[in-house]
Structure formats: structure tokens, C-alpha cells
Design brief:
Blueprint lengths: L8 E3 L4 E8 L11 E7 L2 E7 L3 E6 L10 E7 L5 H22 L2 E8 L4 E5 L2 E5 L6 E4 L4 E7 L2 E6 L2 H12 L11 E4 L13
Antiparallel strand pairs: 1-6, 2-3, 3-4, 5-6, 7-12, 7-13, 8-9, 9-10, 11-12
Length: 200
């Protein structure tokens, strides 16, 4: 039994979840048999594919409760099959991320440590100056909001956790933290243990 999959997702009326009995994609054969889940909230809308053997059960809130909470329960056709057990918990986790994404959003903070390292938004493009001969220009993906409150800080926010993480990693890859001088681009509270240089 999946401990994660058996936990219901609770949400309020500001979130609307619809399970549409239509293929997630009509052009990609991998998704022909998968149905579509749509999650709508104050910050936007997310959609994801649901495996045909994953069952969703929507429970309405109790009458008379001050702040009504809806519940979404998950189950699978055959708990004995390893693949179904795995997707049971995975589906629940992905749907939960969608709910958090459209209500609270996801964020990542990048810190630039190094002399002359800085960032700026110029004409909708993220421009990094990292000591190279030319600045690095990075296009900001649709669905993400990127701000530079100070030249050594970049803030990324969006409704898709994976998209936020991938874009943060893409920026970090241009100047990964190095352990000797501890310079580079750090994500959130990332730290790196300092190494001593070779002594002569």
C-alpha cells in the first residue's frame, strides 16, 4: 500500500479541480489513454496526465463548516502491481504540487558570490555578468516570473515546481560554486564546504 497515495489532498473553494475524461494529448501516442486533470487557482492553471488505472474520488465539504474543505482521494485498480503502487503515490504528489503551485506558488533565490558577478533584466532578457568576455543572455521561459531586486540576487517564481527548479539550475550551471574561493551562483540556502588549496 502507498502511504503517500492514501493521503487525501485537502483544498478550499479558491481551487477548482476537474478530472476531464479526454486524452491528455491527441497528437502524442504516449498520452492517448491518459485522461486530463485540470487545477485552477488564484495564481493560474495547471494540467497533468492521469494514468487509466488511477482513480480519483472527490469528496465535498461537510455542511455547516466555517471554512469548507474539499478532499481528493486517490486509489488504483490493483495494489499488488508494483507500477500501479508507484504511480499511486507519484500521482498524489504531482497533483499536490499543482494545488500548491496555483495557490502559493514556488520560488527559488539565486545568490551571486564573486567580484563583479551580477545580474539584470534587460528588455525582458536575464543578463548575467560573470567575469566572461561577454555577458550571458538567458531567455525567461513562459510561465515564470524573474526579478532582480539587487544585482547579486535573482528571484524566480512560478506555478510549476519542476520548471522553477530547472531554470534555477540552468542559471547556476553558468558559474557553479567552487570549493576553494567559494565563488559562484548559489541556489536558496545552498552552501559548499571550503577546501584548502595545495600548500607549497
Amino acid at each position: 500500500m502507498s502511504h503517500i497515495g492514501s493521503l487525501p489532498i485537502k483544498y478550499t473553494s479558491e481551487v477548482k479541480i476537474e478530472h476531464l475524461k479526454i486524452p491528455f494529448s491527441t497528437t502524442d501516442s504516449r498520452f492517448f489513454e491518459k485522461t486530463t486533470l485540470k487545477v485552477i487557482g488564484p495564481l493560474g492553471e495547471r494540467t497533468m496526465a492521469i494514468e487509466p488505472y488511477v482513480k480519483l474520488d472527490f469528496v465535498k465539504p461537510k455542511v455547516g463548516v466555517k471554512i469548507p474543505e474539499y478532499e481528493l482521494h486517490f486509489s488504483v485498480e490493483d495494489k499488488e502491481l508494483k507500477k500501479q503502487r508507484q504511480m499511486w503515490g507519484t500521482t498524489r504528489a504531482l497533483v499536490n504540487n499543482c494545488v500548491i503551485g496555483v495557490t502559493e506558488g514556488f520560488n527559488a533565490t539565486l545568490r551571486f558570490v564573486g567580484v563583479g558577478y551580477r545580474a539584470a533584466i534587460e528588455q525582458g532578457i536575464l543578463v548575467l555578468r560573470l567575469g566572461y568576455a561577454n555577458p550571458v543572455n538567458i531567455e525567461i521561459p513562459k510561465g515564470l516570473t524573474v526579478t532582480v531586486p539587487v544585482p547579486v540576487r535573482v528571484l524566480i517564481s512560478g506555478t510549476d515546481l519542476q520548471q522553477v527548479k530547472l531554470f534555477a539550475a540552468k542559471i547556476r550551471a553558468w558559474k557553479k560554486p567552487e570549493p576553494y574561493k567559494q565563488k559562484g551562483i548559489f541556489i536558496n540556502d545552498e552552501t559548499i564546504r571550503k577546501k584548502e588549496g595545495k600548500k607549497k
